[in-house]
Amino acid sequence: MRKYYSLLVYLATPLVLLYLAYRGLRDRDYLKRWPERFAFFDAPESAGAIVVHAASMGEVNAAAPLVRALGTLFPTIPVCVTTITPTGSGRVRTLFAESVGHVYAPLDLPGAVRRFFDRVRPRLLIIVETEIWPNLYHEAHVRAIPVIMVNARISERSIRSYLRFRRLTSEALGVVSVAAAQSAQDAARLIELGAKKDRVTVTGNLKFDVNLSPELPEAGESLRLAWGTDRKVLTCGSTHEGDEVSLIKAFKGVLEAFPTALLVLVPRHPERFSRAAQLARSAGLRVSLHSESADCPPETQCLVIDSMGVLLQYYAACDVAFVGGSMTAIGGQNMLEPAALGKPVIVGPHTFNFSDIVQQLIGVHGALQIQDTRGLEEVICRLFGEPQLRERMGRAGLELVNSGKGALKRTLDLVNNRVNPTAG
Question: What is the number of helices (H) and of strands (E) in the chain?
């Protein structure tokens, strides 16, 4: 089955390159470092690294505490973080600078995968969340390199797609040394896709082990002082166009009740910065850009954050947080970060990527889920007008985050048992 898959990947490679070129029309970083995607790069001086694969920025953020802990637990073993997207790559360098190695993960072509292993010569391959690459897993197995899936999750939408290729996923997952799932449901789905039952365990969600800078509250307070403490602020993180269209429309209604309110839009992808600003201006909102001045003028109604890696300080500065990717069928983004900052959270109807987290937050009354633009406007107005409700929701979300911590330690124990087999 893997041979047919490899043939399809070879045939699809020109389409992948065309896609990268298309993305490069808006984000020039997609046009750079193409040789790395075929594992043409200088071999690192030190071999035997622990390779952590985190596809994009969200996975890099989730893996950050793990990567830092690996450096502490195994100070003599190098760590190499691979990503697929330029935003993920940029986040690796922002978080870790030169303390870890970094290259793009190879396309799942047999030759590229072999070159990658020849150059990096890893001792362990850690896959963050759910990236099932049959040739990558096969080559690791051939070379007796353990593969560990951490923070693994399979959404209802994903499993329907994977089940169409169960023979292929079963072959790939069958070589996984251990799959550390976020929940019992994720564990069951991994087994259904072919992971060996005795190698699947539940460790919880690494995203609960939120590692927030102690300076964040002060940074948020400084922004509020600059904006005006009487203003109500809605920060919308990791937004896509479908989110922004609804948010801008809803916020125009909010302004009728709260004329000095501020909408902060933080697009998920840098190629969307100018588009988000255009949408807001076209709707008649007065727009400022973060790159022009983080301390936006008092007449600003919409502040567009056209920089990466600063979302958390804008969550820290808000009264209410909306988490993007949830107004259209993208599946949502990480809502534990604003919850960990004690902020009430709003999400849209499409949260299948984080269904367990959403259910838990809603269950403790730390989040509200709306179904449409009208509901979004009503909930924003309600939260802006009820400070005690905001406080209760923020406190409930923070308590949930604190109670869910511990996945990092359990995951590190699994890794330690593979790096030092006699440790357990």
Answer: 17, 14
- In which band, very low, low, confident or very high, does the pLDDT at 424 lie, cut at 50, 70 and 90? very low
pLDDT surpassing 80 at residue 45: no
Q: How many residues does the chain have?
A: 424
List the structure tokens of 381.
């107005």
216-403, which class in CATH?
alpha beta
Query: DSSP characters for 20-79?
Result: HHHHHTT-GGGGS-GGGGGT-SPPPSS--PEEEE--SHHHHHHHHHHHHHHHHH-TTS-E
How far apart are the C-alpha atoms of 247 and 136, rounded to whole Å?
41
Q: What is the DSSP letter of 215?
A: T
> How many angstroms separate the CA atoms of 264 and 258, rounded?
15
Assess contact for 328 and 246: CB atoms under 8 A.
no
Q: Where are the alpha helices (DSSP H) in 47-85?
A: 57-73
Half-sphere exposure of 252 (CA within 13 A, CB side): 15
The number of angstroms, rounded, from the C-alpha of 299 to the middle of its chain's C-alpha atoms is 33
Give the span between the Cα atoms of 378 and 360, in whole angstroms: 22
Q: How confident is the model at residue 304 (pLDDT cuts 50, 70, 90)?
A: very high
Distance CA 53, CA 80 (A): 8
Q: Which two tokens stand for residue 181?
A: 């799932």
**pLDDT score of 212:** 86
**Fold (CATH) for 2-209+405-419:** Rossmann fold (3.40.50)
Q: How far is CA 381 from CA 361, 371, 416, in A?
A: 20, 16, 49
What residue spans define the domains of the chain?
A: 2-209+405-419, 216-403
Residue positions annotated with a catalytic role = 59
Looking up tokens 């995951």, which residue turns up? 411
d(CA 273, CA 151) in angstroms, rounded, equals: 30
Report field, pTM of the whole predicted structure over 0.85? no
Helix/strand/coil (H, E, C) string of 347-396?
A: ECCCCHHHHHHHHHHHHCCCEEECCCHHHHHHHHHHHHHCHHHHHHHHHH
